[in-house]
Design goal:
Largest sheet: 9 strands, mixed
Strand content: 15-25%
Bound molecules: aspartic acid
Number of domains: 1
CATH class: Alpha Beta
Structural class: alpha+beta
Oligomer: single chain
């Protein structure tokens, strides 16, 4: 399997469409270049590449499904402290770590999710387990933890998730908040614009959620998303990532989508489902639908973020409204891996 670092030179929606993709991942929207050391940039590239490789390997196995591909890729990103999911997740303002994840099967619209979990090592696997071994779609908090323990999933002490990098990020966030009298991220009043850097949602503040979309040999799609949420969120706050139709959606007839961004907006605009609905009901192309949703009313209202999308023909697209772009990558059917950072 070769590794290529390709560059998307175009900013036009249609040209951002890539063909013959079997798996794609994102590692959240990008930090301002000036804030990223070459060493950290290398870690980001490597992390995305490893996730793509793991996901691709999972897809190659006899009888593998797109669910196996997205779960393997997202687990890898959850274990990687460079990304805001699993180990390396952001802190709540109370100094805890609360993780959200979801997964969806495009073949039959089965879905599973967990929210506000603190000890489940791989929330994406917990989400898949909810989907496959319970009658429910979304488990939260203590009930989710108990379900995971009953199902013998890997459980860790919450300290496992904590990194000095994110502890510093929380400290800086709380200092900024104190200086500006700002409300914490995600607690702006409904309808309030959040374009100023003070809100923490634009400028160099990234949305480091991770996600994957995949297509298996049978042409079935799947999507998965996992996150620590937004830096400095209040304990108990749940974003879009575990909400089916907001941060994650998969349906063979339209597309698979995983999102990252300011979750409150992504929930209100039902971003992932809106992209699928435009394809299904309005006949839009994948890239047109993704760009229209990301750059439509939500952006005007101050909602920033990004999506990756894949359809059953293997067409992949990414769209973002953040300044610096999206950490992302994809692998084609023949195993060629491409990783992109920023507005490349
Ligand atoms: N969408 C996530 C949330 O709002 C955050 C992110 O993408 O970084 O919880």
């Amino acid at each position: 399997m070769g590794v290529l670092f390709l560059f998307d030179v175009s900013v036009f929606a249609e040209e951002r469409l890539v063909k013959d993709v079997v798996l794609a991942v994102h590692g959240g929207t990008a930090y301002a270049r000036a804030d990223v050391t070459p060493e950290f940039e290398k870690l980001l590239r490597q992390g995305l590449e490893h996730a793509l490789r793991k996901g691709y390997e999972a897809l190659q196995k006899e009888g593998a499904t797109s669910l196996d591909g997205v779960e393997a890729a997202v687990r890898e990103l959850e274990d990687d402290p460079a990304f805001n999911a699993g180990r390396g997740a952001v802190f709540t303002r109370e100094g805890t770590i609360e993780l959200d994840a979801s997964i969806m099967d495009g073949k039959d619209k089965r879905a599973g999710a967990v929210a506000s979990v603190t000890t489940i090592r791989n929330p994406v696997t917990a989400a898949r387990t909810v989907m496959e071994r319970s009658r429910h779609v979304l488990f939260v908090g203590a009930g989710a933890e108990k379900f995971a323990a009953d199902q013998k999933l890997d459980v860790v002490d919450s300290e496992y998730f904590q990194t000095p990098r994110q502890r510093d990020a929380l400290k800086r966030y709380l200092e900024r908040e104190l200086q500006s009298g700002d409300r914490p991220a995600g607690l702006e009043k409904q309808g309030e614009k959040t374009e100023s850097k003070k809100s923490g949602s634009t400028g160099s503040s990234p949305h480091g959620t991770v996600g994957a979309v995949a297509r298996d040999r049978a042409g079935n799609l799947a999507a998965a998303t996992s996150t620590g949420g937004m830096n400095g969120k209040r304990s108990g706050r749940v974003g879009d990532s575990p909400v089916i139709g907001a941060g994650t959606y998969a349906e063979n007839a339209s597309c698979a989508v995983s999102a990252t961004g300011h979750g409150e907006f992504f929930i209100r605009w039902t971003v992932a489902h809106d992209i699928a609905a435009r394809i299904k009901y309005a006949g839009q192309s994948l890239s047109q639908a993704a760009n229209d949703v990301i750059h439509g009313d939500m952006e005007k209202a101050g909602g920033r973020g990004a999506v990756i999308g894949l359809n059953s023909r293997g067409e992949f697209t990414a769209a973002w409204s953040t300044k610096e772009g999206l950490y992302r990558g994809y692998v084609t059917r023949d195993g060629q891996i491409s990783v992109m950072l920023y507005e490349e």
